[in-house]
């Protein structure tokens, strides 16, 4: 299998790195996929609405060479993972932690 360097925001997973959000904030996630593979991107602890329409969900398929945008209203306090649901991709770096911070 060919090795890949999977990342979110250009960085592989680091448990010390938190994507900060504030309770009540509307957050837009933008998933950009350049490789020729599908990525089922999962957000734990929240549901989001795809800006292209459709039902609320917690996982979005990001097709090769495409972008997906999703909005959610931050309201479930805690630390939550965002990751590719392909376990290999997540384990080699395609995940991060979303965390609530006080204003």
Summary, kept brief:
The protein has one helix spanning 87-91, and strands at 18-21, 26-33, 39-43, 49-50, 59-62, 66-73, 79-84, 95-100. It is mostly beta strands and 103 residues long. It starts with 17 loop residues before the first strand and ends with a strand.
Number of helices: 1
Structural class: mainly beta
Taking all Cα atoms into account, the compactness measure Rg is: 13 Å
CATH class: Mainly Beta
CA-CA gap between termini = 45 Å
- In the CATH classification, which architecture applies? Sandwich
User: What is the CATH superfamily classification?
Assistant: Cupredoxins -  blue copper proteins
Order of helices and strands: EEEEEEEHE
Proportion of residues in β-strands: 35-45%
Shape: globular
Major sheet size, sense and barrel closure? 5 strands, mixed
CATH fold title:
Immunoglobulin-like
Pick out the low-confidence regions.
none
Helix content: under 10%
Mean pLDDT metric: 93
Number of domains: 1
Keywords: Metal-binding
GO molecular function: copper ion binding; oxidoreductase activity
Domain Plastocyanin-like: 2-97
InterPro entries: Cu-oxidase_C, Cu_oxidase_CS, Cu_oxidase_Cu_BS, Cupredoxin
């Amino acid at each position: 299998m060919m090795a890949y360097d999977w990342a979110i925001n250009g960085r592989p997973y680091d448990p010390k790195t938190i994507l900060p959000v504030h309770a009540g904030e509307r957050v837009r996630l933008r998933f950009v996929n350049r490789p020729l593979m599908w990525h089922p991107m999962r957000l734990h602890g929240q549901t989001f609405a795809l800006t292209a329409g459709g039902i609320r969900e917690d996982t979005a398929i990001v097709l090769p060479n495409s972008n997906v945008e999703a909005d959610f209203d931050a309201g479930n306090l805690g630390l939550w993972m965002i990751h590719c649901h392909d376990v290999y991709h997540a384990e080699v770096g395609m995940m991060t932690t979303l965390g609530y911070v006080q204003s």
